[in-house]
Amino acid sequence: MSGLGFELLATDGAARRGRLHTGRGTIDTPAFMPVGTAATVKAMAPDAVAATGTRIILANTYHLMLRPGAEIIERLGGLHKFMNWPGPILTDSGGFQVMSLAKLGNIGEDGVVFQSHIDGSRHQLTAEKSLRIQRALGADISMAFDECTPFPAKKDDAARSMRLSMRWAERSKAAFEERPGFGLFGINQGGVYEDLRAESADALKAIGFDGYALGGLAVGEGRETMFGILGVAAPLFPAGRPRYLMGVGKPEDLVGAVERGIDMFDCVMPTRSGRTGQAFTRFGPVNLRNARHAADPRPLDEACACPACRNHGRAYLNHLVQAKEILASMLLTWHNLHYYQDLMAAMRRAIAEGTFAAFTAAFAEQQAAGDIEER
């Protein structure tokens, strides 16, 4: 019996409006999860994150196992208490960070041997160890251990990688300790090859998971290729389980993926952009480093209710960015997360009302119109 509950409340085409129930709260879907890499959403206090409308965040197994260590976090009462976030937390398996950040020793049937990017210390990560760490952290949703297939990859290489991930998925399921309110997601792989994606989906469904993620996308293949894979792969998974697209993305990526049946997302885009002076608005991105904002009293977006838009003009935000003040990162990150959560809420309403096609058309028109500074 599933440790999580998922209700599919409405559909509009392939787009889905749902509700995911965990032991620490309910998440309305489509949902966006800010990335809290090292037990913090950068430049944001936990109550500020919640104030944006966020109900679930993501934390990174790889980073937390290296610093401060899963054992320390467990001893201190788990990740929720450690970072003072009472809501649900999804933890990735650590596989992607091992491939992208660490100095790899070797990848074998048992797992991955690597050197830490922090101090060069040597570690091994296996499906069983990844699940033990995620349990120690107290993750509400754990992810199966997988290898993120690089792009580009020849079909034979993508197939080898995917099949290894499927064997690891089976071991992850065996290592996962089922409890009410907690769940485990499997990860679909196969690169840009539709038949490999289908083979991976069949393998994951045979194992049985509380939700299904699509991994190995947004790694350089391009938006249209990604959308093509989503259109084929998303419907392969059970309608009564959530579908999660990992590491995506820009606002237009979220809208296009929801249109193709995706329920959950995570990405560093809104937080990283906020720290580099970029804000997202209804009319596209705004670069606050640009000198033309220096004397502009208007808000970033007059329709936005976040503190950056409610209390400050572009001139002040430009000043903070130019002066490299920490408050710039705080305000722009808050704004971006608020915008992302507003976007998700608008999509949920449109699906529930059966007006998602009209929503996507209006969204595209506004984005094409350009930043409000040009209007």
In short:
This protein has 375 residues and is of the alpha/beta class. It has helices at 46-51, 61-66, 70-75, 79-83, 95-100, 127-137, 155-175, 194-207, 223-233, 251-259, 269-275, 307-311, 314-322, 326-353, 356-369; strands at 5-12, 15-22, 25-29, 31-34, 57-59, 89-91, 103-107, 111-115, 122-126, 141-143, 183-188, 211-214, 243-245, 264-267, 278-281, 284-287. It has two domains: 5-267, TIM Barrel; 274-374, no CATH class.
How does this model look, in words?
By secondary structure, the chain is an alpha/beta fold. The chain has 2 domains: 263 residues, TIM Barrel (Alpha-Beta Barrel), CATH 3.20.20.105; 101 residues, no CATH class. It has 15 helices and 16 strands. The strands form 4 sheets. The protein has an 8-stranded parallel sheet. The protein has a 3-stranded antiparallel sheet with strand order 1-2-3. A hairpin with a 3-residue loop joins strand 7 and strand 8. Helix 6 crosses helix 7. The longest helix is centred in the last third of the chain and has 28 residues. The chain is globular, with a radius of gyration of 20 Å. The mean pLDDT is 96.
Search tags:
8-stranded parallel β-sheet; 3-stranded antiparallel β-sheet; 15 helices; 16 strands
